[in-house]
Protein backbone atom coordinates (compact mmCIF):
# COMPACT_ATOMS: atom_id res chain seq x y z
CA UNK A 1 0.00 0.00 0.00
CA UNK A 2 1.22 3.55 -0.68
CA UNK A 3 2.07 6.19 1.86
CA UNK A 4 -0.20 9.18 2.42
CA UNK A 5 1.57 11.18 -0.28
CA UNK A 6 -0.38 9.14 -2.83
CA UNK A 7 -3.58 10.89 -1.73
CA UNK A 8 -2.17 14.43 -1.63
CA UNK A 9 -1.41 14.60 -5.35
CA UNK A 10 -3.76 16.70 -7.43
CA UNK A 11 -5.21 14.75 -10.32
CA UNK A 12 -6.09 16.77 -13.41
CA UNK A 13 -9.11 14.62 -14.15
CA UNK A 14 -10.67 14.73 -10.68
CA UNK A 15 -9.61 18.28 -9.80
CA UNK A 16 -9.27 17.38 -6.14
CA UNK A 17 -6.52 17.52 -3.56
CA UNK A 18 -6.69 15.87 -0.15
CA UNK A 19 -4.65 18.51 1.68
CA UNK A 20 -6.42 21.36 -0.06
CA UNK A 21 -9.82 19.97 0.78
CA UNK A 22 -8.87 19.60 4.42
CA UNK A 23 -7.58 23.14 4.57
CA UNK A 24 -10.80 24.50 3.10
CA UNK A 25 -12.92 22.56 5.58
CA UNK A 26 -14.70 20.53 2.89
CA UNK A 27 -15.78 16.96 3.56
CA UNK A 28 -13.47 14.15 2.51
CA UNK A 29 -14.64 12.09 -0.48
CA UNK A 30 -16.66 8.96 0.26
CA UNK A 31 -14.25 7.08 -2.01
CA UNK A 32 -10.76 8.18 -3.02
CA UNK A 33 -8.82 6.12 -5.54
CA UNK A 34 -5.19 7.24 -5.73
CA UNK A 35 -2.87 6.31 -8.62
CA UNK A 36 -3.86 2.64 -8.56
CA UNK A 37 -2.57 -0.06 -10.85
CA UNK A 38 -3.42 -3.76 -10.88
CA UNK A 39 -1.10 -6.39 -12.36
CA UNK A 40 -1.79 -10.11 -12.70
CA UNK A 41 0.71 -12.87 -13.35
CA UNK A 42 -0.47 -15.68 -15.64
CA UNK A 43 1.35 -18.82 -16.77
CA UNK A 44 2.32 -17.14 -20.04
CA UNK A 45 2.75 -13.45 -19.20
CA UNK A 46 2.14 -10.56 -16.84
CA UNK A 47 -1.05 -8.57 -17.45
CA UNK A 48 -1.67 -4.98 -16.38
CA UNK A 49 -5.42 -4.54 -15.89
CA UNK A 50 -5.39 -0.96 -14.56
CA UNK A 51 -2.80 1.81 -14.71
CA UNK A 52 -2.60 5.21 -12.98
CA UNK A 53 -6.29 5.45 -12.06
CA UNK A 54 -7.25 8.31 -9.73
CA UNK A 55 -10.82 9.29 -8.88
CA UNK A 56 -12.70 11.00 -6.05
CA UNK A 57 -16.37 10.22 -5.40
CA UNK A 58 -18.28 12.54 -3.09
CA UNK A 59 -20.70 11.39 -0.40
CA UNK A 60 -24.13 10.81 -1.95
CA UNK A 61 -22.78 11.02 -5.51
CA UNK A 62 -23.73 8.59 -8.28
CA UNK A 63 -20.80 7.78 -10.58
CA UNK A 64 -20.98 5.43 -13.57
CA UNK A 65 -17.99 3.78 -15.24
CA UNK A 66 -18.02 2.83 -18.92
CA UNK A 67 -15.33 1.50 -21.21
CA UNK A 68 -14.39 -1.34 -23.55
CA UNK A 69 -14.67 -4.93 -22.36
CA UNK A 70 -11.60 -5.99 -20.41
CA UNK A 71 -10.54 -2.46 -19.46
CA UNK A 72 -10.68 -3.15 -15.71
CA UNK A 73 -14.06 -1.70 -14.72
CA UNK A 74 -15.01 -4.63 -12.49
CA UNK A 75 -11.45 -4.81 -11.18
CA UNK A 76 -11.83 -1.23 -9.99
CA UNK A 77 -14.95 -2.15 -7.99
CA UNK A 78 -13.07 -5.03 -6.38
CA UNK A 79 -10.33 -2.61 -5.30
CA UNK A 80 -12.89 -0.37 -3.58
CA UNK A 81 -14.46 -3.41 -1.90
CA UNK A 82 -11.06 -4.57 -0.68
CA UNK A 83 -11.29 -7.84 -2.61
CA UNK A 84 -8.10 -6.99 -4.53
CA UNK A 85 -4.99 -5.06 -3.51
CA UNK A 86 -3.58 -2.42 -5.87
CA UNK A 87 -0.02 -2.66 -7.12
CA UNK A 88 0.79 0.18 -6.57
CA UNK A 89 -1.62 2.89 -5.34
CA UNK A 90 -4.33 2.92 -2.70
CA UNK A 91 -8.01 3.39 -1.93
CA UNK A 92 -9.63 5.33 0.90
CA UNK A 93 -13.21 4.64 1.95
CA UNK A 94 -14.68 7.32 4.20
CA UNK A 95 -11.14 8.58 4.82
CA UNK A 96 -9.94 5.13 5.96
CA UNK A 97 -7.43 3.14 3.96
CA UNK A 98 -8.85 -0.04 2.43
CA UNK A 99 -6.63 -2.94 3.51
CA UNK A 100 -8.96 -5.89 2.97
CA UNK A 101 -12.60 -6.87 2.44
CA UNK A 102 -14.92 -4.16 3.74
CA UNK A 103 -18.12 -5.05 5.64
CA UNK A 104 -19.50 -1.52 5.22
CA UNK A 105 -20.16 -1.65 1.47
CA UNK A 106 -23.08 -3.05 -0.53
CA UNK A 107 -22.38 -5.06 -3.68
CA UNK A 108 -24.85 -5.92 -6.47
CA UNK A 109 -23.70 -8.24 -9.25
CA UNK A 110 -25.04 -8.98 -12.73
CA UNK A 111 -26.66 -12.17 -11.41
CA UNK A 112 -28.95 -11.88 -8.41
CA UNK A 113 -27.36 -14.99 -6.85
CA UNK A 114 -30.33 -15.69 -4.59
CA UNK A 115 -30.62 -18.85 -2.49
CA UNK A 116 -33.31 -21.04 -4.09
CA UNK A 117 -34.57 -22.41 -0.76
CA UNK A 118 -35.15 -19.00 0.82
CA UNK A 119 -38.03 -16.62 0.17
CA UNK A 120 -37.41 -13.10 -1.08
CA UNK A 121 -37.60 -11.72 2.46
CA UNK A 122 -35.28 -14.39 3.86
CA UNK A 123 -32.80 -13.77 1.02
CA UNK A 124 -32.78 -10.09 2.00
CA UNK A 125 -32.36 -10.95 5.68
CA UNK A 126 -29.38 -13.18 4.91
CA UNK A 127 -27.32 -9.99 4.98
CA UNK A 128 -28.40 -9.37 8.58
CA UNK A 129 -27.46 -12.91 9.60
CA UNK A 130 -24.00 -12.55 8.08
CA UNK A 131 -23.40 -9.18 9.75
CA UNK A 132 -25.13 -9.86 13.08
CA UNK A 133 -27.62 -7.02 12.62
CA UNK A 134 -30.23 -7.09 15.43
CA UNK A 135 -33.25 -9.06 14.21
CA UNK A 136 -35.89 -6.41 14.95
CA UNK A 137 -33.95 -3.67 13.19
CA UNK A 138 -33.22 -5.95 10.23
CA UNK A 139 -36.90 -6.90 9.78
CA UNK A 140 -38.00 -3.27 9.91
CA UNK A 141 -35.34 -2.28 7.40
CA UNK A 142 -36.30 -5.19 5.11
CA UNK A 143 -39.96 -4.11 5.20
CA UNK A 144 -38.95 -0.56 4.23
CA UNK A 145 -36.83 -1.80 1.33
CA UNK A 146 -39.53 -4.19 0.11
CA UNK A 147 -41.96 -1.26 -0.08
CA UNK A 148 -39.35 1.01 -1.63
CA UNK A 149 -38.57 -1.45 -4.42
CA UNK A 150 -42.16 -2.44 -5.17
CA UNK A 151 -41.83 -6.02 -3.92
CA UNK A 152 -44.98 -5.81 -1.78
CA UNK A 153 -46.90 -9.04 -2.14
CA UNK A 154 -43.84 -10.99 -3.32
CA UNK A 155 -41.85 -11.02 -0.09
CA UNK A 156 -42.75 -14.68 0.57
CA UNK A 157 -42.14 -15.82 -3.01
CA UNK A 158 -39.17 -18.03 -3.86
CA UNK A 159 -36.63 -17.06 -6.56
CA UNK A 160 -38.11 -19.43 -9.18
CA UNK A 161 -41.44 -17.61 -8.72
CA UNK A 162 -39.90 -14.19 -9.46
CA UNK A 163 -39.04 -12.56 -12.77
CA UNK A 164 -35.45 -11.56 -13.49
CA UNK A 165 -36.24 -7.95 -12.66
CA UNK A 166 -37.81 -8.89 -9.33
CA UNK A 167 -34.83 -11.07 -8.48
CA UNK A 168 -32.54 -8.08 -9.03
CA UNK A 169 -34.78 -5.97 -6.79
CA UNK A 170 -34.31 -8.57 -4.06
CA UNK A 171 -30.53 -8.47 -4.63
CA UNK A 172 -30.61 -4.68 -4.35
CA UNK A 173 -32.58 -4.87 -1.09
CA UNK A 174 -30.09 -7.38 0.26
CA UNK A 175 -27.18 -5.07 -0.60
CA UNK A 176 -28.86 -2.08 1.08
CA UNK A 177 -30.12 -3.87 4.20
CA UNK A 178 -27.20 -2.84 6.44
CA UNK A 179 -27.40 0.77 5.15
CA UNK A 180 -23.94 0.84 3.56
CA UNK A 181 -22.47 4.28 2.87
CA UNK A 182 -21.19 3.01 -0.51
CA UNK A 183 -23.02 0.76 -2.99
CA UNK A 184 -21.05 -0.97 -5.74
CA UNK A 185 -23.01 -2.22 -8.76
CA UNK A 186 -21.40 -4.40 -11.43
CA UNK A 187 -23.62 -4.58 -14.54
CA UNK A 188 -26.68 -5.30 -12.38
CA UNK A 189 -29.22 -5.00 -15.22
CA UNK A 190 -27.14 -6.32 -18.11
CA UNK A 191 -28.99 -9.63 -18.45
CA UNK A 192 -32.49 -8.10 -18.41
CA UNK A 193 -34.74 -7.22 -21.34
CA UNK A 194 -34.78 -3.59 -22.45
CA UNK A 195 -38.16 -2.68 -20.93
CA UNK A 196 -37.37 -4.20 -17.54
CA UNK A 197 -33.99 -2.50 -17.57
CA UNK A 198 -35.58 0.90 -18.18
CA UNK A 199 -38.05 0.32 -15.36
CA UNK A 200 -35.27 -0.62 -12.96
CA UNK A 201 -33.24 2.42 -14.01
CA UNK A 202 -36.17 4.61 -12.97
CA UNK A 203 -36.53 2.69 -9.68
CA UNK A 204 -32.80 2.92 -8.95
CA UNK A 205 -32.83 6.69 -9.52
CA UNK A 206 -35.72 7.03 -7.05
CA UNK A 207 -34.06 4.76 -4.46
CA UNK A 208 -30.79 6.68 -4.75
CA UNK A 209 -32.60 9.97 -4.22
CA UNK A 210 -34.37 8.58 -1.15
CA UNK A 211 -31.32 6.95 0.45
CA UNK A 212 -28.53 9.28 -0.79
CA UNK A 213 -26.18 6.31 -0.81
CA UNK A 214 -22.92 6.84 -2.68
CA UNK A 215 -23.12 4.65 -5.80
CA UNK A 216 -20.41 3.40 -8.13
CA UNK A 217 -21.96 1.65 -11.16
CA UNK A 218 -20.22 -0.33 -13.90
CA UNK A 219 -22.24 -0.62 -17.11
CA UNK A 220 -21.82 -1.14 -20.85
CA UNK A 221 -24.93 0.95 -21.57
CA UNK A 222 -24.12 4.58 -22.35
CA UNK A 223 -27.78 5.62 -21.95
CA UNK A 224 -28.00 3.89 -18.57
CA UNK A 225 -24.79 5.54 -17.36
CA UNK A 226 -25.90 9.05 -18.34
CA UNK A 227 -29.48 8.62 -17.12
CA UNK A 228 -28.41 7.46 -13.66
CA UNK A 229 -25.15 9.24 -12.90
CA UNK A 230 -23.94 12.64 -11.77
CA UNK A 231 -20.66 11.90 -13.55
CA UNK A 232 -19.61 9.31 -16.12
CA UNK A 233 -16.04 7.98 -16.07
CA UNK A 234 -14.86 6.84 -19.50
CA UNK A 235 -11.99 4.37 -19.42
CA UNK A 236 -9.45 3.38 -22.04
CA UNK A 237 -8.72 -0.14 -23.31
CA UNK A 238 -6.51 -2.34 -21.12
CA UNK A 239 -4.48 -1.33 -19.27
CA UNK A 240 -7.47 0.74 -18.20
CA UNK A 241 -7.00 4.33 -17.19
CA UNK A 242 -9.36 7.30 -16.97
CA UNK A 243 -9.79 8.91 -20.39
CA UNK A 244 -12.26 11.59 -19.26
CA UNK A 245 -14.78 12.31 -16.51
CA UNK A 246 -18.01 13.81 -17.90
CA UNK A 247 -20.32 15.97 -15.78
CA UNK A 248 -23.83 14.96 -16.82
CA UNK A 249 -25.59 18.16 -15.72
CA UNK A 250 -29.04 16.64 -15.07
CA UNK A 251 -31.20 17.25 -11.98
CA UNK A 252 -31.36 14.40 -9.42
CA UNK A 253 -35.04 13.67 -10.17
CA UNK A 254 -35.23 12.39 -13.73
CA UNK A 255 -38.34 11.35 -15.62
CA UNK A 256 -37.24 8.78 -18.17
CA UNK A 257 -38.77 10.10 -21.40
CA UNK A 258 -38.09 13.76 -20.56
CA UNK A 259 -34.48 13.03 -19.63
CA UNK A 260 -33.73 11.11 -22.81
CA UNK A 261 -35.19 14.00 -24.85
CA UNK A 262 -33.13 16.67 -23.03
CA UNK A 263 -30.17 18.46 -24.55
CA UNK A 264 -27.99 17.65 -21.52
CA UNK A 265 -28.62 13.92 -22.01
CA UNK A 266 -27.88 14.12 -25.73
CA UNK A 267 -24.68 16.08 -25.18
CA UNK A 268 -23.39 13.73 -22.49
CA UNK A 269 -24.19 10.53 -24.41
CA UNK A 270 -22.71 12.05 -27.54
CA UNK A 271 -19.47 12.84 -25.75
CA UNK A 272 -19.23 9.32 -24.29
CA UNK A 273 -19.83 7.80 -27.74
CA UNK A 274 -17.23 10.11 -29.23
CA UNK A 275 -14.64 9.02 -26.67
CA UNK A 276 -15.43 5.32 -27.04
CA UNK A 277 -15.46 5.69 -30.82
CA UNK A 278 -12.03 7.28 -30.64
CA UNK A 279 -10.90 4.37 -28.49
CA UNK A 280 -12.18 1.89 -31.10
CA UNK A 281 -10.49 3.80 -33.92
CA UNK A 282 -7.22 3.81 -31.96
CA UNK A 283 -7.47 0.03 -31.54
Count of spatially separate domains: 2
Determine the structural class based on helices, strands and strand pairing: alpha/beta
SSE ordering: HEEEHEEEHHHEHEHEEHH
Poorly predicted runs are 1-5, 8-25
What name is given to the CATH topology of the largest domain?
Rossmann fold
- The rounded Rg comes to 19 Å
SS field, number of helical segments:
9
The outline comes out as globular
- CATH architecture grouping of the largest domain: 3-Layer(aba) Sandwich
| Amount of beta strand | 15-25%
Helix content: 25-40%
The main pleated sheet reads as:
6 strands, mixed
Strand order of the largest sheet: 6-7-8-3-9-10
Please report the total strand number as a whole number. Answer: 10
Mean pLDDT across all residues, rounded?
87
Distance between the termini: 32 Å
* CATH homologous superfamily grouping of the largest domain: P-loop containing nucleotide triphosphate hydrolases
The CATH top-level class label of the largest domain = Alpha Beta
Topology:
Blueprint: H1 18-24, E1 31-41, E2 46-57, E3 62-66, H2 73-81, E4 90-93, E5 96-97, E6 105-108, H3 120-131, H4 135-148, H5 164-176, E7 182-186, H6 194-211, E8 214-218, H7 222-228, E9 231-235, E10 242-247, H8 256-261, H9 263-282
Parallel strand pairs: 3-8, 3-9, 6-7, 7-8
Antiparallel strand pairs: 1-2, 1-4, 4-5, 9-10
Biased composition (Basic and acidic residues): 1-16
Domain ABC transporter: 31-262
Region (Disordered): 1-23
Description of the molecule:
There is one protein chain. The protein is an alpha/beta fold. It has two domains: 4-104 and 181-282, Rossmann fold, CATH 3.40.50.300; 114-179, no CATH class. It contains nine helices and ten strands. The protein has helices at residues 18-24, 73-81, 120-131, 135-148, 164-176, 194-211, 222-228, 256-261, 263-282; strands spanning 31-41, 46-57, 62-66, 90-93, 96-97, 105-108, 182-186, 214-218, 231-235, 242-247. The strands form two sheets. It has a six-stranded mixed sheet, with helices on both faces. Strands 2-1-4-5 form a four-stranded antiparallel sheet. α3 (120-131) runs parallel beside α5 and α7 (222-228) crosses α9. The radius of gyration is 19 Å and the shape is globular. The protein starts with 17 loop residues before the first helix and ends with a helix. Residues 1-5 and 8-25 have low confidence and may be disordered.
